[in-house]
Write a structure and sequence with these properties.
Order of helices and strands: EHHEHHEHHEH
Structural class: alpha+beta
Radius of gyration: 14 Å
Number of helices: 7
Distance between the termini: 15 Å
Bound molecules: guanosine-5'-diphosphate
Length: about 140
């Protein structure tokens, strides 16, 4: 059993896509271990995406991620990290496979609706960035 960290990004929340995303997670048999809405400050978004500090899109990305509420979650299931990444689709929705969340809903390489950890180490960091022990079931 593995846990991963997921976000419905501010574009997804603003566009009313929470229900669609959660339905796909439930249908895939992944279980929710924690969930809440957060409106990140710019500094909190910079901390979350610190690995991308040197990228040209860092300023724009952290402004976007702090532009409104996002739904942050911990998901659990067998092979959850890879399975959630597969359900999300490629970063650029234009390259994303059919039936993935980004292919179906994203409008932009940056505003791509969802986030998912890419490895166990990042899942551990991202999970503890947002949730304490009392917020996890
Ligand atoms: P992910 O793991 O698929 O989310 O992709 P990355 O870790 O490479 O990038 C993190 C996030 O930065 C992506 O989900 C996008 O929101 C954004 N992003 C990635 N590449 C670009 C880009 O070339 N331009 C812009 N504006 N945003 C990007």
């Amino acid at each position: 059993m593995q846990q991963t960290f997921a976000i419905v990004k501010p574009d997804g929340v603003a566009r009313g896509l929470i229900g669609d995303v959660l339905k796909r997670i439930e249908s895939a048999g992944l279980r929710f271990k924690a969930m809440k809405l957060v409106h990140m400050t710019k500094a909190q978004a910079e901390g979350f995406y610190a690995v991308h500090k040197a990228r040209p899109f860092f300023k724009s990305l952290t402004e976007f991620m702090s532009s409104g509420p996002a739904l942050v979650m911990i998901l659990e299931g067998e092979n959850a990290i890879a399975r959630w990444r597969e359900m999300m689709g490629a970063t650029n929705y234009k390259d994303a496979a059919e039936g993935t969340i980004r292919r179906d809903f994203a409008t932009d390489i940056e505003k791509n609706v969802v986030h998912g950890s890419d490895a166990p180490e990042t899942a551990a960091f991202e999970t503890s960035y947002f949730f304490n022990a009392f917020e996890r079931v």
